[in-house]
Amino acid sequence: MTDSENPEIERRIEFLRKELHAHNHRYFVLDDPMISDAEYDRMMKELIELEEAWPQFSTPDSPSARVGSSPLEKFDTITHTVPMMSLDKGFNTNDLISFDQRVRKLLGNETEVLYTAEPKMDGVAVELVYENGGLTMASTRGDGVTGEVITANVKTIQTVPLRLQEQNHLLIPDLLEVRGEIFISKENFALLNKERANQGLSLFANPRNAAAGSLRQLDSAITAQRPLEIYIYNISDPDVLGTDSQAETLQTLKQLGFRINPLILSKARLSEVISYFRDLDAKRLELPYEIDGMVVKVDGFSDQQLLGATSRSPRWAIAIKFKALQERTRVVDIQVQVGRTGALTPVAHLEPVNVAGVMVSRATLHNEDEVKKKDVRIGDMVFVQRAGDVIPEVVKVIVSCRNGTERPFSMPFVCPVCGASVVRIKGEAATRCININCPAQIKGNIKHFASKGAFDIEGLGDKLIDQLVDKNIISSYADLFFLTKDVLENLERMGSKSAENILLAIENSKHISFARFLYALGIRHVGEHIARIFAEAFDDIEAIFVATAESFELIDGIGPTVAASIVDFFGQKKNRATIRRLLESGITFKKDKTIKGDEPLTGMTFVLTGKLETMTRPQAKKMIEGAGGRVVGSVSKKTDYLVAGESPGSKLAQARRLGVKVISEAELISEFFMQNSGDKKK
Ligand code: IVH
Predict the structure, then answer these.
(1) What residues flank ligand 1, with Cβ below 6 Å?
(2) Cα-flanking dihedrals φ and ψ of residue 247, to 5°?
(3) Which of 135, 249, 544, 657 has a CA 20 to 30 Å removed from the CA of 483?
(4) Is the pLDDT confidence value at 680 over 50?
(5) 221 with 258, same domain?
(6) Is there a domain that residue 207 lies in?
(7) Do 314 and 366 reside in the same domain of the chain?
(8) Domain that residue 146 falls in
(9) Which ligand 1 atom lies nearest to the CA of residue 314?
(10) Whose CA is nearest to atom 17 of ligand 1?
(11) Which atom of ligand 1 is nearest to the CA of 119?
(12) Centre of ligand 1 from the C-alpha of residue 398, in Å
C-alpha cells in the first residue's frame, strides 16, 4: 500500500466530513443541534489534523474549509451562465395591483394568479454553484453579467452548505446554481461596530455595507470572523430540480440544506399579498435583519416562462419597496439636553426631513464620545435614521459635502439648564449635571413619574409639567398630589373643566401597584422589570427603607449595581421626605399580579386571524397579553397557537403547513381563561 492509499484514514475523513456537514446543517440551518459544541469541536479538530497529515485526501468542500484559506492578490471575475437580472420596482400597493393586472393581461386575462411574496433582504446578492453536490464556486452579482469570485469567503459562512443534503427521494443535480442574499443581522452589526470602535477602526454605515465589506476581503480568514448569514431565494435554471413553481422550489432547496427565509408567503392571492406587505412593513423594524421591501414572484414556472423578461428584469416579478428609514439632511445646530438623571445628551437640530412618513427635526448624538467618533459638526450633511421606537439618530456624516465652514462641537463645562458644574465619571459615557435641584432633572423626574408605565396620569403632559416647575408651583412629584383647582385654573391654556379633569386623573392614580410605584420613583437602574422583582420581594416601602445592599443582592435577579443604586436613593434624606409626602397624600397599594414569568401564558406565542366570535382582535390581544402571552402578526414555527375566527385567510394555511395548533376563540377561553385551566401549559 502506497502513502496515498490508506483506505482506513480515507474512510475516517469521509465519515467526519459527512457527520460535520450534517451537524452544521442541524445547528445553523435547522437551529436544532444534536451534539454539544465540544463534541463538534473535537470532530472538527480531528478532521483538520487528518487532512493536514494526509493532504491527498483534502477536498475543497470539506467542512474544515470554513476557517479561511490563503489570501488572494485580487478577485477573479466570472460571467454568470444565466445573467442575474434586476427587479422592476414599485413603491406602494397600487403598483402591486398594476403589476397583477399586467401579469393577468399577458397571461390571457386569467382571473387569478398565485404569487410567492418574500421579504426583500437588504444584503449582498450572490450565486452559489454546486457541482455533483459540492460547492465549487461562489460569486457576487456584480453588474448582473459578470461578478467576482468569492468562493473562499463564502465557504466561511456557516449557513452556506458546502455539500448538498442527500435525501433518499431527492436527486442531486450535476449542476445547481442557486441565488440568494448574504447579510449581517442588526444585532451582530451593532456588536461588530462596537468591537471596531474599541479597536479604533472605522465603523460600517449599515449592515449591508458591513456584509459587502466582509465579503470583499482578500483574506478569507478575516471573513471567517464576520457574522455573515445567507438566505437562498432562487435558482438560475428553473428546470434543474424538476419543480414547477417557486414555492415548490423553495421547499426542495430547503430539503437540500439551504436556508430559506421562514417568512415567505407561498401560493397567495393578490389580496393576501397586499396584507402580507402591510404586515411586513409594520414589523420590519422588529425583524432581526434589515429588509427594504417585498419581492413578489408569479409562482408557476410555466407562467413565468410565458411572461419572459425585458433586457433588465423579468416580467414575472416585482419588488415593492418600503419607505426608506434613512434620509439625508443638514445639521443646523447641536444643542445639549439634560435628562432626569442629569445626563447631558448632545442633540442634532436638523433641517426637517421626512423619514418613512415621520418628520424628523432632531436626532440624538448619544454622548460626547459618539460625537467625536462620528465627527459630526454643525453644518454637516448627515444621514439620519429611524429604527424602531427609538429616537432618530445621526448615522454618518457625508464628508464629501463639507466646504470648510462646518464647526466642531464640544461639551459645555456647565449645565446648560441650571449653570451648575458638570462631571464625567471615569468609565461612564455620560457627562452629568451634579445639581439635584436642576430644573431639567426635576421636570424629567416628574414626567417619568406621570408616564404610562408609572402613575399614568392622563392629561398631565410635558408642557404642563414644564409650566408647573417653571412657575415654582411644584418641585417634586409628591407636590402633584397637593395641587388645587384654583392654581391649575390660572395656568395658560387651562380652563375650569380641564383643571378638574387633571385633578381627577391625579386622584385616580393614587391606587397603584407597588411595582409601578417603585418604578415611578425614578431610581437609577430600576426599570419596570426590576421594580416588579422588588415588589415581589418586599411587602412595603418601610421594609425597603431599612434593608441593606447585601440583603438586596440575595434577591434573584438583583446585582450589585442595582443594589447600590437603591441604597443610595433611599439613603438620601430628600428622597425619603418625598416618599413620606407621597404616602401622606393617600397613596394606597394594589396587590401586585404575579411577576412576569409566572403568568399562565408566559412563553407562549399566539397569532390571531379572521373575525372572532365575541371579541375584537385587539380585545383578544389584550387578554392574552394580560396573562403573560405574546401576540404576533404572522405564523412561524415558533407560534404556539393560531386563534382563527371567520374568514381566516392565509395565516390558517401557513399554520397548517407548519403544524401550528389552530384553535377557536371559544377554545382559547376554555383552555386558558376558565377556572382551573391556568396550569395547562404546553
Ligand atoms: S429575486 C430576477 N428575491 O433584490 C429575480 N431578490 O433587484 C432576482 N433581493 O440584488 C431576484 N431579496 O439581491 C429576489 N427574496 C428576494 C430578494 C431579492 C433581496 C435582491 C437581490 C437583487 C435585488 C434585485
Answers:
(1) 85-87, 118, 120-121, 125, 141, 181, 233-234, 295, 314, 317, 319
(2) -60, -45
(3) 544
(4) no
(5) yes
(6) yes
(7) no
(8) 88-321
(9) 2
(10) 120
(11) 15
(12) 28
pLDDT in the model for residue 298 = 97
Considering the domain architecture, whether residues 633 and 613 belong to the same structural domain is answered as yes
- Whose CA is closest to atom 18 on ligand 1? 120
Rounded to whole angstroms, the Cα distance separating 444 from 522 reads 9
Catalytic residue among 18, 120, 372, 573: 120
C-alpha cell at position 144: 448582473
The per-residue pLDDT for range 289-316, each reduced to its tens digit, is 999 899 999 999 999 999 999 888 899 9
* Other beta carbons within 10 Å of 482: 13
pLDDT digit string, tens, across residues 236-245 = 999 999 999 9
Say if residue 104 is in the same domain as residue 169: yes
Do 362 and 457 reside in the same domain of the chain?
no
- How far CA 300 is from CA of 237, 239, 244, 615, in Å, comes to 14, 12, 6, 39
State the Cα–Cα distance between residues 454 and 449, nearest whole angstrom.
6
N residues, the chain: 682
Please state, in angstroms and rounded to a whole number, the distance separating the CA atoms of residues 326 and 292: 11
142-194 tens-digit pLDDT: 888 888 999 999 999 999 999 998 876 778 899 999 999 999 999 999 899 88
CA 239 – CA 165 distance, rounded (Å): 19
Number of domains forming the structure of the chain = 5
How many C-alpha atoms does 632 have within 13 Å on its Cβ side?
Answer: 20
- What is the pTM assigned to this prediction? 0.56
When mean pLDDT is compared across 80-94, 260-274, 288-302, the lowest value belongs to 80-94
Query: Do 478 and 523 belong to one domain?
Result: yes
Helix (H) or strand (E) holding 36: none
Question: Is 621 a known active-site residue?
Answer: no
Question: Would residue 409 count as lying in a domain?
Answer: no
The answer as to whether 431 is a domain residue is no
Which CATH number goes with the domain that contains 479? 1.10.150.20
Query: Are both 52 and 94 inside the same structural domain?
Result: no
CATH code: domain of residue 39: 1.10.287.610
